[in-house]
Amino acid sequence: MKASETMSSAMQGLFIMRCIISEYGRRLILIIYSYVDWIYAYLYLMNFYAAMTCSSHIPTVFELLKTMSSAMEGNNDCRVRGNKSDKTRRSWSTREEEVLLAALKELVVQGWKSYNGFRAGYWNKLEEAMKKEFPSTDLKGMSHINSKTTTWKKNYYSLSAILNRSGVGFNLKGTHMIECNDEQWDQIVKSWPHLDAWREIFGKDRATGENAEDVMDVVNELHQNQETFQLFSEGKNRKNNDGFFDMVELLAEINRMVRTTDKRLETIASRIGYDFDQSKVRKDVFDRLSNIEGLSINDKFDICEILAKEVDKMDIFMGLPDEAKTQYVMRLLALKYGTL
């Protein structure tokens, strides 16, 4: 009787193991193998072993395996999401924000801020400044500092748009809050202690319009994307980096050419406007000369030629009162004929 009971228990045990291996075993082993918290797994295995010692606990075994599998996978998912969140989100202390603002101001003074934003590589400079002040800090330039400066910039632009509205002011000394009439109060009232610093750092970033973006914006973005990509592909496809930096240099050169062209176009435009004004003035010169008595037609032609060649003298002539124009014209004629 005892032998038959022993055999029956053995058969039941083999049946249980076969079911476990076929239905849940491979999945369970993979989960346990990849699971870091061995204490958590150990406790479940102890419960699993206790359930295995009694054939009447077959449903308990399967329920335990299902619970263990789902719990482990859920915990792993939380760990992955938690790690991802920790890399991109971080609470900043007031002192850390003050140091970052000071470092950004220093970069502005040192010329790191270009026409429409900071030059590529400024993250590294800011990260070095933060580590110098906080040696044990976990702040990273590409993630934390970039996120913080981006948020500040958005806040600055939002505040600037609000402060440009009528009936809105800002208290730089004391509360650092927006001051406005009752009609706008509920919409925009809030404390903004960093506005003055943001103005110094971001104030000229939108000289060409709210949504303007020049070539250096693209260069900076490409450089930042390259830094991000290198974190995942370090040691691979190094030849591609040369092509990337060649493209960056090309875009930078195009940007310099565009800015030079813009300046030349501004000069040309101003010159065209000036020439247009001068052409208008030259047409008025002969009429002004007609009011001067004692001038022959040839004298008038000579004066027109002199004033057309020497713009400074034309400006003097047009700026003189009528009674002085006669003496000035006589003086020019005397200089021309050598009688003065």
Automatic annotation (TrEMBL):
Keywords: Membrane, Transmembrane, Transmembrane helix. Pfam families: Myb_DNA-bind_3 (PF12776). Residues 91-187 form the Myb/SANT-like domain. InterPro entries: Myb/SANT-like_dom (IPR024752). The keyword Transmembrane helix applies. The chain crosses the membrane at residues 28-50. The keyword Transmembrane helix applies. It comes from the Eukaryota. This is Myb/SANT-like domain-containing protein. It comes from Perilla frutescens var. hirtella.
